[in-house]
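User: Please predict the structure of the protein below. I'd like the answer in structure-token form so I can feed it into my own downstream comparison script.

Assistant: Understood. Taking the following sequence of 346 residues as input:
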Amino acid sequence: MRSFNIRQPDQQLRAAIQDKIDNLNKPKGALGVLEDLALQICLAQQTLTPKLCHPSHLLFGGDHGIEREGVSVSPRDVTWQQMINFTRGGGGVNMFCRQHGFSLRIIDVGVDYDLSEVGGIINRKIARGTRNFLYEPAMSEEQFDRAITVGREMADLCADEGCNILCIGEMGIANTSPSSIWMHLFGNIPLDECIGAGAGLDTLGIQHKREVLHEAVKRAAPVLNSVQSVIRYFGGFEMVAAIGAMLRAAELKMLVMVDGFIMSACMMAASRLYPDVLSYAIFGHCGDESGHCRMLQLMNARPLLQLNMRLGEGTGALCSYPIIQSAVNMMNEMNNFDNAHITKYF
């Protein structure tokens, strides 16, 4: 795996940033989470006057071999059908990108369908889906490296356009299964507490999913000897590409907007490789998938929204963008007590 040079932001500006926040014409702490968010953004950008430039969204698509075991209520055909739908502007991700002014790239890294002739989809297909991790690793080391490289490449393309805030989403039927296993192994949480309904499994379906994932972890245990081996054994191509994009964005000191259960699992995996990536992560929402709230707690993450969403695609993170913009506007547009000739009232 290619290495990344990710460093925690320099803290020398922290006192000056906090002083500016505290002297805006408001009671100290009155804007709550916006103040914490502004501090994080200013530190990441090393400035007292932050800005958001060319917000961009990457949507990676890929299929999963474990889908063959009936762990999802939706068939894998939905992956390619939705990928085509996104090119026509008809998905939830399209709506929110339009609403908030995000450019959108749709990337096929492993969809089990030939999308090479579909306009609007970037073809970086590694294989037509991962292998079934119930029986063998989902991907080879070479495939893992290629997926990381695709994510890195896409983050670079956004940076070249002037982007300094990157949102990442996914499309891949059955990808809550690897996410649950990553949460279990990286968070030391009992596996049953990490498994939910995904796209809508009933009680019997969830029980079957638990049995399959327990057996997969048991069989894989002898070869899980590193963070990378866990990611590679269970992950999807779209998930590993997302990790590559997150790591490269943090290396470039870009803000990284994190979506729901799957993208939070990817950020958790990324943070096990490079802990300082979390300094650049903004967690958009706490989703409705079982275990997401606990996963966020494992990263000491405070989500901006809780709307009971579980669509994926990056939609929950995109919904949080106006809050991020408000934190930036607060730093640049609010007056301070001295300039406004207002007596401090705290």
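That's the full token string. The radius of gyration is 20 Å.
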